[in-house]
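Subject: sequence -> structure tokens, single chain

Hey, anyone have a minute? Need the predicted structure for the following. Not urgent.
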Amino acid sequence: MTPEILAALEQAKRAKQPIVLATRLPTGEQQLLPAPDAPADLNDAAKRALDRDESGTVKLGDTDWFLQAYNPPLRLIVVGAVHIAQALVPFAVPCGFSVTVVDPRRSFASDERFPGVEISTDWPDEALDKFAPDSRTAVVTLTHDPKLDDPALDRALKSQAFYIGSLGSRRTHAARLKRLRDLGHQDNALSRIRGPVGLNIEAVTAPEIALSIIAEIVGVRRNAPLPPKSSV
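Reply:
Had a minute. Here:
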């Protein structure tokens, strides 16, 4: 690995930028992907490696390449230390997510309620500013309290989060969208919010709702054909 490639790889890691180190076999020639000057099929293979979190050898034409995927860690930021959050965390962790629960209400956000989970008692906007959601981050708001959910959604919409979801009925979601429009968000940005959050599986209990949420998060991450949400 040349010093230039090593420096660029380290910079991408610091910037939480997904990147692939491609090594031509057997010559050992290397380059970072995606790259504007790389063949389209090589860039496509690199994208698949990142999407799947898989490294391995691919054959493109007459050439073998070893593609090493370097992805930032998967993260889930849950705003609202409520019962659904307690059910959601045990689903998210085995799916590879590092979970942070955000709630300034210390009686809710406690180690007893969320053992082994990172907890932030900052106000949601401050917490989102601190954690800086990237393209490997999902953000879910569960409080039903606009004073807590709206600032988090405002920050999430300004980020690269790959998934943004918010709990509430269609009527609640419509009112939420109006408030976010008043903050300056346009409809194309608001369409990123999955609301009501979760797949429609007629969930009733907290574990069922949590299951619908993690299923939707995984579906969005894996580019699954999910049903559209209500129009903004």
